[in-house]
Design brief:
The chain is an alpha+beta fold. It is about 35% helix and about 25% strand.
């Protein structure tokens, strides 16, 4: 079976402290079949991403992140905008996403990823974040809330946005 060329790019942006960093990486295709694409909806993929991230956090003796629908909505909109080409793959508009969630916060961070051609795009994205120092720092951060948004375009590219929030 022909596998499409797969690109994995990851990004990181954190407020408080204020800094940003984009980290491009390439990863080989994963053979994990944790998420069956034939029967998975985008909502199922988002749930799987949250489960995998919380499993990772548990392995580090960190509490799980709670999904907040306001945060997920902003993450999903950003992923949809990247997938459609409305915005480039980036953290552009991050501050607007943070304001739109209307949650009093101490700190906020964001991870983004995209890939295509993998049997388990969620596992590929989460594994890529774990392998990246900046992204792993967000995943291990002292956050209590999260939102995950995934979008797929007509080319079969999956775009991921995860926002991490430490509420006040």
């Amino acid at each position: 079976m022909y596998k499409s060329l797969v690109l994995m790019s990851l990004g990181l942006l954190t407020i408080l402290p204020n800094f940003s960093q984009l980290i491009p990486t390439e990863s080989p295709p994963q053979n994990s079949m944790n998420t069956n694409l034939a029967s998975s909806s985008i909502a199922d993929l988002e749930k799987a991403a949250n489960q995998q991230i919380n499993q990772y956090r548990a392995s580090k003796k960190l509490p799980p992140l709670s999904i907040d629908p306001r945060i997920s909505q902003q993450a999903r909109i950003h992923s949809e905008n990247m997938a459609s080409g409305k915005v480039k793959f980036s953290h552009d508009g991050f501050e607007g996403r943070v304001k739109a969630i209307t949650i009093p916060y101490q700190s906020v961070a964001e991870n983004v990823a995209y890939n295509m051609g993998y049997s388990d795009p969620v596992r590929n994205a989460v594994d890529g974040w774990i392998k990246s120092d900046g992204h792993r720092k967000n995943m291990e951060g002292q956050f209590n809330l999260t939102g995950i948004g995934i979008a797929k375009n007509a080319k079969g590219e999956y775009y991921f946005t995860q926002l991490f929030v430490r509420s006040r």
